[in-house]
Amino acid sequence: MRVMLEKMFEFMGAKQLDSEAAEILNDLQVKLNTVLDNLSAVFANSFQARISVCMRQVGEMVYQVKGPLNQNSRNSAESDAVTALRPLMEFLDSHLSIFADVCEKTVLKRVLKDLWRNVLICMERTIVLPESNDSIGAQLLTAAKELSKLKGGGEAKYLSPRQCVVMEAALDTIKHFFHAGGDGLKKSYLEKSDELRSLHYALSLYAQSTDELIRTFITTQHSQVHNGTSMRITPKESLRPERASGIEQFIGEAVIQVDTTPPTANTEQKITVKVIGVNDMKWQTSGLFRPFVEVSLIGPMLADKKRKFTTKSKNNCWTAKYNESFLYALGKGVSAEFYELQVTVKDYCFGRADQVVGVAVIPLALAVGLERRSFVCWCPLAPSIATDQTGTTTLRILAQRHDDEIAREFIRLKSERRPTEEGR
Q1: Are residues 191 and 223 in the same domain?
Q2: Staple 88 to which of 54, 171, 349, 356, CB 3.0 to 4.6 Å?
Q3: Does 282 lie in the same domain as 354?
Q4: Does residue 314 sit in the same domain as residue 248?
Q5: What's the pLDDT tens digit per position in 191-236?
Q6: Residues sharing a CB contact under 8 Å with residue 100, sequence separation 6 or more, in sequence order
Q7: Which pLDDT value is given to residue 15?
C-alpha cells in the first residue's frame, strides 16, 4: 500500500501536485510508514522468546572459554566466537533467508533493524550485563549467596578478560551477518547504533579492575544526589549559610568539615573528617529515634586501609551535634580528585538492621578545585543515590564480582536507600 500510494503520488504530478492534495497524501504516507514500523516491531518481537533461548546457550558456551588472555587466545577469539554463536546464527540464518525471499525491500530493512536491536539488547541483558528484576541492592544479596556457593567449590559467572575479547569478536560476527555483504543493513547504521555502542562500552568497562571501575564511577557521576538543592561550601569556622527556599523533599542535612593534608615524598595524603552534626531531620518512627552518621571513603587503592567510621548515636534528636573526627589515608600517589566521601545518616535499631534516613556525597575534588585545605560542607540529604547510564553499567558489572570484598562494599553503599514507608 505504501508503494502504491507513492506511485499514485508521482502519477498525479508529484511536486507539481495541488498543495492540499499533496498534504493529504503525505499524511497518509506517514501513517502507513508508522503502521509498517509498528508491524515490523511486533513481528520481530514474536521471535524474542526463541532468541533468548539461543542467547542463553551462547552465554553458556562463552563461559566455558577458559584460560588467560594472551596472544594465542586473542588469535583464537574469532573461532571461539563462531563456536559460541552457532545456536543463534543457525536460528537467524534459517529465518532471514526466508525473509529475504518474501519481503519487499523496505519491509526487509525494517525487520532487519528490529531484529538487530533485539539481538543486541538480549545479548547485553543475558550475557554482558545479566539483568535482574531486582534492584542493585537485591542483586547484592544474591551476590552474597553466590559467594557462599563459591566457597563450596562453585564458580562465579562474570566475564573474564579473555571472554570479553570473545564477545567483541562475536559482535563483529553478528554485525557482518546483518550487513550481508551489502544486501542487508548499511555498515554505517550498524556501527552507529546505540545498542552496539552500549555493548562496546560495557565490555571496555568489564576489562577494568575494581579500582579502575570505582575511579570511573567517581569521575563521571557528578550528580549522585538529587533533592532539589545543592551542597553549600563555606570556609572553616564560617556561619551557616542560608538554606535555599523551595527545596524539594527536604529530609535533613549533615554538616561535615573536611581538612586535607598534602602528601610529602614518602607519605600518603591524609584526610580528617569531622562530623559536626545533623539538622532538621525528617523522620517518623513509632519507637526511639537514635540517629548516627556513617562516613565512608570511596576510591582506588583502599583495600588495606580503614574506609568507614561511624559516630555514636543520639537519643531522640532530630537536630544533633556530634563533633567527632576521623582520619583517613588515601592511596599513595593518587590525587584526591579520584576520591569521595559518602555520608549516610541512619537510625540505630537494636536487634534489627539500621534504617537509612538519608545520604550525601562529598567529592574530594572540591579540595583540589577550591584550593582549600579546610572547608565545611552543608549537605542536604537525599533518599538514595542517583546514577546515569555509565554509573548504572559500572554498578551492574561490579555487582557480578561476588568474590570481591571492595566491589560488594561499593555496591552496598550505592544501593542503600531510605525506606518508602517512612514518613517525610
Answers
A1: no
A2: 54
A3: yes
A4: yes
A5: 999 999 999 999 999 988 999 999 999 999 988 875 545 677 777 6
A6: 108, 183
A7: 79
